[in-house]
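Protein modeling request. Please complete all fields; requests missing the sequence field cannot be processed.
Requester role: graduate student
Desired output: 3D structure, token encoding
Chains: 1
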Amino acid sequence: MSGLQWWCSAQTAAWTSNPRPFPGVWVLVVLLAVLHWSLRRAGGGERIQKETRAWFGGVLALWIALDWPVGALAGYLASAHMLQYLLTALVAPPLLLLGVPAGAWRRLASRARTVRALRFLTHPLIALAIFQVTLYYTHLPSVVDGLMVTPLGSFALDTLWLLGGLVFWWPVVAPVPQRPGFGYPLKMGYLFLCTLVNTLPYAFLTFGELPFYGIYELAPPVGILGPREDQQLAGLLMKVGGGLILWTAITIQFFVWFRREGEAEGPAPAA
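Delivered output (271 residues):
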């Protein structure tokens, strides 16, 4: 592993535990920190600790997914590549959206054309379709083998995951555009539907007789996992890890709904 790469990609040299810098990831982290500062200023400079913690939680998830060692291992193991997907598409996007200050959302709501475009793009059915097409496309063997061999191609995959995740989580998390008819029960159903449509790629990865990805079949071995066992682990991570994230979100939606229903009813009258 000689030379400096700006972004993780598939490797042909043997794996080493020596830390390796990915300066492109560091630049992304800095840009996201600057973006949060800009959004706070655009919203009137309000300091809200809850939003700040959520935003930098999303940044941390991306940093873990893309930097050493997970980013480096993603060039050797399909399972590490799947962990990248979970962190980039399912963990980071809702935290980043929750981290947008309320003032920035108010400014966005005042832009009628942008809101109309977002209303269409983030309609729950369209958002779910975009996310699933992104999921299937970015896990096709021809796409993975073709893009993961270069830093630019690997960057493209990570970008697609992040953008697809933002579109998917937008109807659940973002307050703009408002969707009065898309209440908590429908949000829970939306997330549950996503757990079902993820079954197809999980089944192919877990029960496939042969390795699907040439880059991982030919990659230098890491640990005791062979290419087929690594692929099976990737499928299980997609199903179990992705399901855990989505069911956690469903549970949160349920308890928020339960709490707000109780608040709407008000305190019980005194005897």
